[in-house]
Amino acid sequence: MNRAIESLQGDFLDPAQVAASHKVMGLDSQLVADGTYFIVEERSRIAGCGGWSFRATLYGGDASIVGREPERLDPARDAAKVRAMYTDPDFVRRGVGRMILRLCEDAAKAAGFVRVELMGTAAGVPLYRAAGYASISAPEQADVDGVKVPLLRMGKALI
Questions:
Q1: Beta strands per DSSP E along 7-146
Q2: Domain ranges of the chain
Q3: Which run of H or of E encompasses 148?
Q4: pLDDT per residue over 68-115, tens digit each?
Q5: Residue from 99, 73, 79 nearest 156 by CA
Q6: Residue 5, SS3?
Q7: Are the C-beta atoms of residues 149 and 17 closer than 8 Å to each other?
């Protein structure tokens, strides 16, 4: 995760924003506890990881500055959340991100959800757009000690 943030965000953000990103992103261990987190390996190396959630938290990890919302979502009313997506820099542009998105979408659909949402980072937005996600709100910025980290809320129908 740290390698992905440092390497891949650097093409989109300045060094201060990349450093601040660590306080906005990261693994949410609730996804692991809920059994909704996936790891893709190639020859015993982690190529990527990501998950989905039936909880209200949209983004952020265990150590992030954003608020946690552990309430369970209602599939009939709410969108599942795609969360904590990372691709090892050595494996970018090889279908790992799309594979993880597909796993998340299929699992959310099997759980009864008809929509998914995510908070895209600058580096992630091109992948999400290519996978059929569209902006559902104006761009946002997480404020980390005065450093603004751009984020974009995106969504997709699963039907």
A1: 37-42, 45-53, 80-87, 115-121, 134-135, 140-144
A2: 2-157
A3: strand 147-157
A4: 788 999 999 999 999 999 999 999 999 999 999 999 999 999 999 999
A5: 79
A6: helix
A7: yes
In one letter, which amino acid is 59?
Y
pLDDT at 103: 98
**Is 2-157 assigned to CATH 3.40.630.30?**
yes
Q: What is the pTM of this model?
A: 0.94
Q: Is 102 in contact with 60 (CB distance < 8 Å)?
A: no
Alpha helix positions (H), the chain = 2-8, 15-21, 29-34, 96-110, 125-130
Write down the pLDDT at residue 106: 98
Distances (CA, A) of 93 to 29, 32, 98, 127: 27, 25, 9, 9
**Residue 37 tokens, joined:** 């987190």
Strand 80-87 relative to strand 115-121: parallel, antiparallel, unpaired?
A: parallel
Residue with tokens 């990349």: 18
The pLDDT tens digits for 40-59 are: 999 999 999 999 999 999 99
Is the pLDDT at 63 greater than 90? The verdict is: no
- Asked if residues 117 and 79 have their Cβ atoms less than 8 Å apart, the reply is yes
